[in-house]
Amino acid sequence: MRSLYGSIGGLVAAAVFASVASAQVPGDNLADLVFWQPDYGTNVNNGFGANPPASAVNGNSPQAMVVDGTGRVYISDDAFNRVLSWPSLGAFDGSATLGVGSPPDRVYGQLGSFTTITANNGGVTANSLRQPRGLAVTAGGVLFVADQENHRVLRYPAGSTTADAVFGQANFGASGQNRGSGASFPNPTTPANSLSRPRTLSLDAAGNLYVSDTGNARILRVPGAVSAAAGVLPNADQVWGQADFLNVTTGTSATKFTFGALGQYFRICGTDYLFVIDNINNRILRFNLSGGTPFTAEAVYGQPTFTSSTANNGGISASSLSGPWEIQFDSVNRMYVTDAGNARVLRIPNPLGPSPAADKVLGQFDFLSGSGGLSQFQFGFFGMRGLLVTGSRDIYVADNPNRRILKFLSPLESNCPADVDGNGTVGANDLSILLTNFGAGPCSPGFDARADIDRNGSVGANDLSVLLTNFGAVCPP
């Protein structure tokens, strides 16, 4: 494993602003690749003034990162008014030896140009964007983009960079906040189809779209958004955070949140959930959509009660939050949180349990630290955005304040996975834990994710084979 202090000095800058690699070692808290900056100690404002102009291999304000069923990658950059896409994560990473990322092969919002960054290039149309934020994509590549400052969501058919459907506006040429009625309230004539600064997006298996309508302090569900006919998407049929589609009020309770709140849908062990990242209130709410009260949160993270909102309530810890921004889950249902105000990523192993708390942290030395920075292991303070956790549990973080994306190779996993109990040797207790969980998966009662040695989401013969092959081994420090 690399030394935290010994690795920072010997960095090699790439010739272009794409990706830079140091020696790539999984299982530690040092980034293995940096994108859009020449090294880990730089956060230049790409594309403006005397800095290098916009190109296919740089960016300035990374936001959301999503991957479709074919492996194609999409990244939104709101400062450059575009979404970039690569055929795969491997293509995005480029060559670790050369430290040069491959250029994207697709751009949304700039009329096919990789060197322009104009807001609403060519006017407000089905091809333009103005500060795009959230992304959602189907397995087949149908892409949804939250076009924040045009107060709309655009749908793009698979493979096309021209939208075929819009939500939040009456047509592709309109861009008014709340359909032109302003910031204070939704338009009373079409309240279920107006938006004010939409951000995060999510899709469920039925093709319903969940939209974070941040300027109206609500989350909307747009029914059948994936399969709906081209043109204007259907009005929302469900709302969280408001009593109805006509009112905008904020609060701190199990049913109310404040402006800027971000909703994300997940299906976990057969149950549908909506998580609302209420960042100004320094908490995350969990709504059980399969239960009897889907519009009242059943749990809160980061606060002791539904009515408290203090940052790091009770002091910074493994269960506190300050300005959280995004969550993701891995194959064994552990939750990852970008805790932006503490400049860290938290991993929560039991997010549905009675007292969820993180067991691992990225970006800080421990759970008691929360300072930001610019280095190979730190994130900028109060501005981390998108989070992507791969099947092998590599982690990509959109470090927005530092104008870069960092990749970590399975940073929160043991670099000696057969050492299930983490005591430094592979022995009888590790075997006991594995056999207790043999045949189990993340939805099995009492499942211990540590036994999933090969990280495929279940405990089976291959996990046992790896453990027995390494039985008696001493793990490297």
Indicate the topology.
Blueprint: E1 19-21, E2 33-35, E3 62-67, E4 73-77, E5 82-86, H1 89-93, E6 106-108, E7 132-137, E8 143-147, E9 152-156, E10 165-167, E11 198-203, E12 209-213, E13 218-222, E14 231-232, E15 238-240, E16 262-268, E17 271-278, E18 283-288, E19 299-301, E20 324-329, E21 335-339, E22 344-348, E23 360-362, E24 384-389, E25 395-399, E26 404-408, H2 428-437, H3 461-469
Parallel strand pairs: 10-14
Antiparallel strand pairs: 1-2, 2-26, 3-4, 4-5, 5-6, 7-8, 8-9, 9-10, 11-12, 12-13, 13-15, 16-17, 17-18, 18-19, 20-21, 21-22, 22-23, 24-25, 25-26
What would your notes on this structure say?
With 477 residues, this protein is mainly β. The protein has 2 domains: 19-408, Neuraminidase, CATH 2.120.10; 428-469, no CATH class. It has 3 helices and 26 strands. The strands form 6 sheets. The chain has a 5-stranded antiparallel β-sheet, with no helix packed on it. Strands 7-8-9-10-14 form a 5-stranded mixed β-sheet, with no helix packed on it. It has a 4-stranded antiparallel β-sheet with strand order 3-4-5-6. Strand 16 and strand 17 (271-278) form a beta hairpin. Helix 2 packs antiparallel against helix 3 (461-469).
Defining key terms:
477 residues; mainly beta; Neuraminidase; 2 domains; five-stranded antiparallel sheet; 3 helices; globular
